[in-house]
Amino acid sequence: MAKTPNKLKARLPRGFVDRSAADIRATDEMIGKIREVYEHYGFDPVETPLFEYTDCLGKFLPDTDRPNAGVFSVQDDDEQWMSLRYDLTAPLARHVAENINEIQLPYRTYRAGYVFRNEKPGPGRFRQFMQFDADSIGAPGVQADAEMCMMFADTLDALGLKGQYIIRVNNRKVLDGVMEAIGLGGDENAETRLTVLRAIDKLDKFGTEGVKLLLGEGRKDESGDFTKGAGLNADQIEKVLFFVSITSYAESAEALAELVAGSENGRSGVAELNDIRALVESAGYGEDRIKIDPSVVRGLEYYTGPVYEAELTFDVTNEKGEKVVFGSVGGGGRYDGLIKRFTGRDVPATGFSIGVSRLMTALKNLGKLSSSSEVQEPVLVTVMDGDIEALGRYQKMTQTLRAAGIRAEMYQGNWKKFGNQLKYADRRNCPLAIIQGSDERAAGEIQIKDLIEGKRLSGEITDNVTWRESRPAQHSVKEAELVATVRQLLDQQAEDTRRQNGDN
C-alpha cells in the first residue's frame, strides 16, 4: 500500500502578517493624502531596493561569520553580505553619496516602503512594517528643520487629526550642553551619558521621582528588580530634571541658556530652538501644533541637532483597560554625520519618518478611514449559457461596463448552477447582477437585479424560471441602456448609504 505523503503545513512566519483588501486600501488612501502634502511642499519621490550591502546600513557591520543582529542577511554570489533594510534613512544616505555629483542639492525627497527587523516579535511589534519618510539633504540651516515640523503638522491635519496632535521639538546640542554643564562631557563619560539618556526616556513611564532615582543610585521596581542608576549627585540631578521638566519654553528659555552658558554646543542648541520657534510662529503655527519640549530625548544619540516627534494627544484604552494617550506616530531630526561615512565630507541632512501602521491604527480608532476607504464591490455579469458565442456576449457586457468606469466582473465558476452565482454575488456584496438568458437576448433586453434592495434572496433559486418569477428589485432594460441604468442604480444606492449614515 502506497504511503500517503505528508501535507505541507501552511504557516505564517512569526512577526509577519497577511494584509486584507480593506487594510491595503486604507493604507493606500492614507499614503495618498501624505504624498499630496509632501508634493505640495516641493518634495519628489525616490525608491531604493529592499536589500543593501550590510556595511552600508552602518549600525550592523558584518563582524561575525553571519551578521544577524537586528537584520535579515544573505550572501550574494560573490560572498558579500546583503541585508534587508532596517530603515529608509541609511539607504537614502547611500543613494545620495553614490549620486552626489548628479543630485541637485538641497535634495528634497520622500519614499514609503517596508523595513525589516530581525528581532523577537511581540504584541504590536512586527518584523516587517511600513514607514513613510521625508528628508531634506544639503540644507544646513534650521529653517529646513522648522519646515519639516510644519510639513509634519500639515500632514496630520490632512489626515483629519487637526487639534489632536502636537509636534514636540528638542535639540541634541542642548542636551550635550547640559551634560557638559554637569561635568559629563568628553569620551570618558560616554557610558554615563547613555545611562542618563535612558533614564530621561522613562519620564512618561516612571514620572519625575522615578527618573530621579535612575539618575542617582538606581531604582527598584514593584517586583524587587533593581536597575542601577547613573550615579549623579544631587546638583547634577537637579539640573537634568530642570531641563527635561520644562513645560513652558517661553518661561524657561533664559534659565536654560544660563545653565548651558559655558558650553558652545549648549549655546548653539538653545539658539537653534529659539530660531525654530520664531520661524514656525511667523508661519502661523502656534504652540498647540509645534512646541519646543526638552523632554523629547528618543533617538538623541543618533541625531546631531534638532529632533522632533509627533504625538497624538487623544485617549485610547490599552490592553489593561486603562485610558492612555495614543502617543508617538513618528519622528525625526537632523543627522548631519550619516552621509559623511561615504563621502568623507559633511553633508547636512534632516528628515522624519512616519510609522504607517501605527498611524493607520490611530485613524481607525477615530473612524477616519471607515467609510472613505471602502470600495464598491463589482457589478456581477451572470452567465446563463456556457458556449463560446454566449460567453463572448457576456464578456462584452463586462468590458462595456469597465470602459464606462464601472467596476465589473463576469462570473467564472460553474455557470450551470445559477443559485451559486447568486450566493457568490451575495458573499461578495455585489451591488447589482446583470442577467441575460435566451428570451432576454431575443428581445434585445437585459435584466438588472438590485442586490442591495433585494438582499433577502433565497439560496433556493436554482434556475432562470424561478428567478424570473421572483423578480425582487429587478429591472428590465434595453441592451443600449445597460450603462446608464447601472449608473443610475449605483447612484441611488450611494445616496441611500449617505442618507443612512446621516441618520445615524
TrEMBL record:
<dbReference type="InterPro" id="IPR036621">
    <property type="entry name" value="Anticodon-bd_dom_sf"/>
</dbReference>
<feature type="binding site">
    <location>
        <position position="298"/>
    </location>
    <ligand>
        <name>L-histidine</name>
    </ligand>
</feature>
<keyword id="KW-0963">Cytoplasm</keyword>
<keyword id="KW-0067">ATP-binding</keyword>
<dbReference type="GO" id="GO:0005524">
    <property type="term" value="F:ATP binding"/>
</dbReference>
<feature type="binding site">
    <location>
        <position position="131"/>
    </location>
    <ligand>
        <name>L-histidine</name>
    </ligand>
</feature>
<feature type="binding site">
    <location>
        <begin position="87"/>
        <end position="89"/>
    </location>
    <ligand>
        <name>L-histidine</name>
    </ligand>
</feature>
<protein>
    <recommendedName>
        <fullName>Histidine--tRNA ligase</fullName>
        <ecNumber>6.1.1.21</ecNumber>
    </recommendedName>
</protein>
<comment type="similarity">
    <text>Belongs to the class-II aminoacyl-tRNA synthetase family.</text>
</comment>
<keyword id="KW-0547">Nucleotide-binding</keyword>
<feature type="binding site">
    <location>
        <position position="135"/>
    </location>
    <ligand>
        <name>L-histidine</name>
    </ligand>
</feature>
<feature type="domain" description="Aminoacyl-transfer RNA synthetases class-II family profile">
    <location>
        <begin position="34"/>
        <end position="378"/>
    </location>
</feature>
<feature type="binding site">
    <location>
        <position position="117"/>
    </location>
    <ligand>
        <name>L-histidine</name>
    </ligand>
</feature>
<dbReference type="Pfam" id="PF03129">
    <property type="entry name" value="HGTP_anticodon"/>
</dbReference>
<dbReference type="InterPro" id="IPR006195">
    <property type="entry name" value="aa-tRNA-synth_II"/>
</dbReference>
<dbReference type="InterPro" id="IPR015807">
    <property type="entry name" value="His-tRNA-ligase"/>
</dbReference>
<keyword id="KW-0030">Aminoacyl-tRNA synthetase</keyword>
<dbReference type="InterPro" id="IPR033656">
    <property type="entry name" value="HisRS_anticodon"/>
</dbReference>
<dbReference type="Pfam" id="PF13393">
    <property type="entry name" value="tRNA-synt_His"/>
</dbReference>
<dbReference type="GO" id="GO:0004821">
    <property type="term" value="F:histidine-tRNA ligase activity"/>
</dbReference>
<dbReference type="InterPro" id="IPR004154">
    <property type="entry name" value="Anticodon-bd"/>
</dbReference>
<dbReference type="InterPro" id="IPR004516">
    <property type="entry name" value="HisRS/HisZ"/>
</dbReference>
<keyword id="KW-0436">Ligase</keyword>
<keyword id="KW-0648">Protein biosynthesis</keyword>
<feature type="binding site">
    <location>
        <begin position="302"/>
        <end position="303"/>
    </location>
    <ligand>
        <name>L-histidine</name>
    </ligand>
</feature>
<dbReference type="GO" id="GO:0005737">
    <property type="term" value="C:cytoplasm"/>
</dbReference>
<dbReference type="InterPro" id="IPR045864">
    <property type="entry name" value="aa-tRNA-synth_II/BPL/LPL"/>
</dbReference>
<dbReference type="GO" id="GO:0006427">
    <property type="term" value="P:histidyl-tRNA aminoacylation"/>
</dbReference>
<dbReference type="InterPro" id="IPR041715">
    <property type="entry name" value="HisRS-like_core"/>
</dbReference>
<comment type="subunit">
    <text>Homodimer.</text>
</comment>
